């Protein structure tokens, strides 16, 4: 279909339109603001899933305010690697797996995607368990019923809901994370100590301390986030016929890169502010009273009741459910995109189910296995621990691959990534590698 250009009309020798008069300024609204954001916001918010909430709660309960500085450290690192992931998707029109299958050996792709499937499925199981425990805490009833309900609802929405409406729902679900900012109001926070803990690194040379550092890095910098954001940028090209991969059409690249950066910085900043709020709440309410044996997000919510009051418990529990509804689709979607792109199947949540049967089958399979794991004797806490181990180990080669692709002209064309963003991406990769080595050293000692 031919594209028609709007020809400005002239009145009295003056051009009408934007140059002659400014369009009325649209009043600010939260809906309009969220509409201007995209994959970066959803990616950042999904990083604070119920499993992540458990990690941050445990960190604050065990180590107090002094661990808050890790959020400032991880912010530029996770922002850089997520922006690079998004650029790869926008420039090439393919996600990470789609580019790996075109430029690297199939055996490498099989290992990466296989580990991603295992880690994401275990993570889905742990998140469903946490959501079910939080729901049981609020209204009672059998937890296993809630596992099935949340799992089926999440998978069903991805398969049968209109893509644009579904993305809008995910954006609105990010609001649930403000529950953890609200929870701060019920905690007796020593803001002087909290600020010092966030700004001044205070390192304790102990195994428990460095294990917590590794857990925080593994929670904030996770492979499924790379795959999801890159694939969502590629998905936007399939949804909007006016957009094309930048490697094919260079026009508007600067504007797109500015959008990606603003979107990613906003999403990652949002993620880290929420994580810091959880750490401070746990430090003020749990660590300060000697309650340091928190292992899950639901346990953190329950422990808040006698200390910070029933409202704090309710707010914390509701946040777990809301973030789980946001994170499970991202975990399952990242797996489906990775496998589908690697096999060169038709992929995309914007496609009708009958046009992407294999893609949606993987999505349903990942969710189904996540539900099924909750019916086994496997301890969800132990499963989550091993999921974090797999994620940590997987993150390093994926990040190395990503950085290599970002520098290849046969992948990125004229948009190869360089400068400070490139080196910050390598710094993020090195930090993750050091975390994994520290974790390995902990096993040997």
Automatic annotation (TrEMBL):
It is found in: Membrane. It comes from the Bacteria. Signal peptide: none annotated. Residues 1-23 are annotated as: Disordered. Keywords: Membrane, Symport, Transmembrane, Transmembrane helix, Transport. Pfam families: Nramp. It is a multi-pass membrane protein. Its main location: membrane. The chain crosses the membrane at residues 108-126, 138-157, 169-189, 209-228, 264-286, 314-337, 357-378, 384-405, 417-444. Residues 1-13 have a biased composition (Basic residues). The keyword Protein transport does not apply. This is Divalent metal cation transporter. It comes from Bradyrhizobium jicamae.
